[in-house]
Design brief:
The complex is a heterodimer. Helix content of chain A is 73%, strand content 0%. By secondary structure, chain A is an all-alpha fold. In chain A, helix 7 (147-172) packs across helix 9. Chain A is globular. Chain B is mainly α. Chain B has a single domain, classed as Orthogonal Bundle (MetI-like fold). Helices cover 81% and strands 0% of the residues of chain B. Classes of the chains: A mainly alpha, B mainly alpha. Chain B: This is ABC transporter permease. Chain B: InterPro entries: Bact_Polyamine_Transport (IPR051789), MetI-like (IPR000515), MetI-like_sf (IPR035906). Chain B: Belongs to the binding-protein-dependent transport system permease family. CysTW subfamily. Chain B: It is a multi-pass membrane protein.
Chain lengths: 285, 268
């Protein structure tokens, strides 16, 4: 019996195992190997063992700098906008409307990010918000193709992902704690700082980590709203692999990106553990 | 507080609304509203490039979702209740697949497949006259890799909440393992499987970044839209965008309803 069960399991796992081996492990290994190689004369990859590509990383410093400033900035901006909304949904809204309002937050997240980012070309372009600003006397405000445009796109794209975990954390909060605090004469702002905020930290940390990880690999938002002036590591990768075909250097950039991401996630996970959060808070799927 | 919430909802829906509004414009400008017409919808639906890209996207999304659901469900069934090194390995693989940025998966798949094809093709061509190349096949494989991991998470999550007493009872009553699976387990996990299929379909249908690298000569709808935006915005793109959003929304609402039903069953 035990033997047949083992064989049944092995049989069920074989297709998934082969899929992971062929299209996850093999490609990641190839990237790692290529990152130590050289660029061949016609582009692509030539075998070798050199650290040249990694030494060359500072050539793409701007892309890393933009990613490492705009990704945290975008995460914080999303957090600041998402928190009050999540609080409103979890604490203030009557249960009758709650589900519908929550679904309305998530719906945009599940439609194409390409089309949603593209919509901002209209709003931030010459005939959009700058035209409105011109009417109140602020002429020549450029918004499109600036870091601000990319930031708006980021907040717009990832806000739902931030609202949801914070909402879940706040929803679990025992309202009697706040009543007790009020009965004991605690002013509302202190009750918020001492009870609500610390208890919602797991949601804040989960949401921030999710948004940050996704932002690290972002390509579309800077490509559409940054107009080639504000670019991320993702945009550098597209350039290296599809235009200049420098696979060895591109692989080193990709490895560096993943390593930075893993370090950040590791630091985050430690922080999350300290605040006692669980990964189950992510219920978006 | 209420005003603030209203402002955030406006922020979330204004851009989507503007695209939908401009798509009904009668004029040629993509960024203003001039009269009302459905002409851009007609234009989009009669554009052979759009229709071919749409057909590629639908085909790839359907096949990758089907394979991902089948293989992912099988893996989830095997992993439930499993301990030890094998379980830890698969948990790690699922996590890696979900966490590595799509763009890295895209380039990794691209260079790995091009290298493997480069090694295999001379030999294969001499033997059969056929050559391997990037295209719908590599798209299905790369999309399915990610969505299969989502299916594993969804279905395993559902499996772990099942009441083991039901399965024991079925076994005690003399049902074969397959009979128990078909009559007891499957009906309970079916909503999660269907939801997984729909999420997988939508992911593949909406994905741009992985497809950009591994599609080869094929053009999917997001690739078509992206390259059109690069050339300049037209009302036709607004019409396509509106249709795509409406289609993904429909699929996702169905997926949500199924998931909710599966969760409601869970509570019973």
């Amino acid at each position: 019996m035990a033997m047949t069960q083992f064989r049944a399991r092995a049989l069920l796992l074989t297709p998934a195992g082969l899929w992971y081996a062929a299209l996850l492990l093999l490609p990641l290994a190839v990237v790692l190997i290529f990152s130590f190689g050289e660029r061949s004369a016609i582009g692509g990859y030539a075998p070798g063992f050199t650290l040249e590509q990694y030494a060359n990383l500072p050539a793409r410093f701007a892309a890393f700098r933009n990613t490492m400033t705009l990704a945290p900035l975008g995460t914080v901006a999303s957090l600041l906008i998402a928190y009050p909304l999540a609080y409103f949904l979890a604490v203030r809204v009557s249960p009758k409307w709650k589900t519908m309002l929550l679904v309305l937050v998530i719906v945009p997240f599940w439609t194409s990010i390409l089309i949603r980012s593209y919509a901002w070309i209209f709003l931030l372009g010459g005939k959009g918000i700058p035209a409105l600003l011109a009417q109140i006397g602020l002429d020549d405000v450029r918004l499109l193709n600036t870091p601000f445009a990319v930031l708006v796109g980021i907040v717009y794209g990832y806000l739902p992902l931030m609202v949801f975990p914070i909402y879940v954390a706040l929803e679990k909060l025992d309202k009697r704690l706040l009543e007790a605090a009020a009965d004991l004469g605690t002013p509302p702002w202190r009750a918020f700082l001492q009870i609500t905020l610390p208890l919602s930290m797991p949601g804040v940390l989960t949401g921030s980590m999710l948004v940050f990880i996704l932002l690290m690999g972002e390509f579309l938002i800077p490509a559409i709203l940054g107009g080639g002036k504000v670019f991320f590591v993702g945009n550098a990768l597209v350039d290296l692999f599809l235009q200049s075909r420098n696979w060895a250097f591109g692989s080193a950039v990709a490895v560096a990106l993943v390593v930075i991401m893993l370090i950040t996630v590791a630091l985050y996970t430690r922080a999350v553990k300290r605040f006692g959060a669980s990964r189950d808070d992510v219920g978006l799927m | 507080m209420r005003l603030y919430a209203l402002a955030v909802y406006a922020f979330l829906y204004l851009p989507i609304g503007i695209i939908a509004l401009f798509s009904f414009s009668a004029g040629r400008s993509a960024s203003s509203m001039q009269g009302f017409s459905l002409q851009w919808y007609g234009r989009a639906l009669n554009n052979p490039f759009v229709m071919e890209a749409l057909w590629t996207s639908v085909r790839v999304a359907f096949l990758s979702a089907l394979l991902a659901t089948l293989v992912g469900t099988m893996a989830a069934l095997a992993l439930t209740g499993m301990r030890g090194r094998m379980r830890a390995t698969f948990d790690l693989l699922v996590q890696i697949a979900v966490m590595i940025p799509g763009i890295v998966i895209g380039i990794a798949t691209l260079i790995a497949l091009v290298s493997v094809f480069g090694l295999v093709n001379p030999w294969l061509e001499a033997a059969t006259g056929w050559k391997l190349s990037l295209g719908a096949g590599s798209l299905i494989g790369a999309h399915g890799l990610f969505t299969m991991s989502l299916v594993v998470l969804l279905v395993r999550g559902r499996m772990e909440t099942l009441d083991p007493a039901l399965i024991e009872a079925s076994n005690d009553l003399g049902a074969t393992p397959f009979g128990t699976f078909r009559q007891v387990t499957l009906p309970q996990i079916l909503p999660a499987i269907l939801a997984g299929f729909l999420l997988a379909f939508t992911f593949s249908f909406d994905d741009f970044i992985i497809a950009f690298f591994v599609a080869g000569a094929e053009t999917t709808l997001p690739i078509y839209v992206f390259s059109s935006i690069r050339r300049g915005v037209t009302p036709e793109i607004n019409a396509i965008g509106t249709m795509v959003m409406a289609a993904s929304l429909t699929v996702l609402i169905v997926a949500q309803l199924l998931l909710r039903r599966s969760q409601a069953q869970q509570r019973r």
